[in-house]
TrEMBL record:
Organism from which the protein derives: Lithospermum erythrorhizon
A Pfam family hit: BT1
Protein known as: Transporter
Domain of life where this protein originates: Eukaryota
PANTHER family documented for this protein: FOLATE-BIOPTERIN TRANSPORTER 1, CHLOROPLASTIC, FOLATE-BIOPTERIN TRANSPORTER 7-RELATED
Amino acid sequence: MVSSVINEYSYDEKNVNEKSKIKIESESKNAGVMKKLLLGLGFWVQGFRCFPWMGVIFYLKDGLRVDPSTIQILQNSANLPMIAKPFYGIVSDSFYIFGQHRIPYIAIGAFLQAVAWISIALSSTSVSFFTITMFLLLGNLGASIVEVANDAIVAETGTSKNFKSSSAGELQSFVWMAGSIGGVVGNLVGGIAIDKFSPKLMFFAYGVLLSIQFLITVCVHESSLHLPSCSANNGIRKQLSELLAALSKPEIFYSIAWLAISYAAIPSLTGTMFFYQTQQLYIESSVLGLSKVVGQAAMLLWGIVYNQRLKKVPSRKLLSAIQVVMAIFMLSDFLFVKGVYRMMGLPDSLYVVVVSGVLEILIFFKILPFTVMMSKLCPLGCEGSLMAFLTSVIALAMMVSGYLGVALASYVQVTGNNFSGLPYGLVIQAACTLLPLIWTSWVHDDKEPHTKSKEN
């Protein structure tokens, strides 16, 4: 009798355990779906930012008659809020809002962006260059906050106890592809809209899209995402000390330093090339839009290829290869400007669509493998601040690159109407691209053992 009771009790306990296990697995699966939906929307909307920015470039060029150097300075200066990303990351890691420390910041960032773009859309026709700049800074401030929170969720997923090593890099690839799809759609629609609608209508449409993102985000509670739990309200000082402790690790510090040099050392000539294509070659805006679509499609393809084929390739080897390919494409631009391809019968528009489109986006290829590597090295508890520091370093390096590009264009005497010195500038740019290869030993070797633990 006693034996049968014990057996029945054991059977009931086993049943309860199995039901609990099924319930936990179901909740975990639902959390994964919700997380992908939230991050997919967030990265897609941020990728779609190219849509209003295409309108900004043409609005400044044709509406306000701004010269190429000023446009490039504005494009880079508008990224100033990106430099403060570590601060946003530390704040989101340290302070919870209504018991949440990621979702509220995504909502705040979406709201600030919506206000900025709708304000530009509703501004008078005599709006000043300074006012436009201030609104663009506000928009990029909101974008920075959103990106920090989204990146932190991705990093936290990578450090979760339930995160399978076989899935390493899959979420990064997913959000990368979501952003790329947003870029493809944004550039494709933007290339068409710029010829049919006013730039201000494009700004308003993007502001409405951001408003929708804001409303969806505030309806999601962070508990549904099953993020790793950590102590709330750690305080900025403690979080800052944890960030400094993480940066003191040689594998993190030297890797980030190399990435910064690999961006900052290359003088960017994107503004100059834009004017060359539109003023000298008379390339239509729809062709430029298609070129950007090809670039974003290349980013999407890169995310798929990396996730399927290249995750196991050492980061040092992969980053070096990307740097070499960039230099080759820049030398191809030299031949393009010299008219070599034209003499071979290749139309300028075809080159702009395919090669220029890929080159413009190729510089971002390094980010995916690098963030995957950083998410593995990132200590628990400072995902937001470390990933924010990384993206701010990239933003600062690209600003330096943009300013160096303005200086290089001035040095080779390129103006809005004179592009005779552009080929020499492209050769210098390609040479600078190869310089960081000297320091590739700074990049962490994935084969080296490392531990991921909470710093005390």
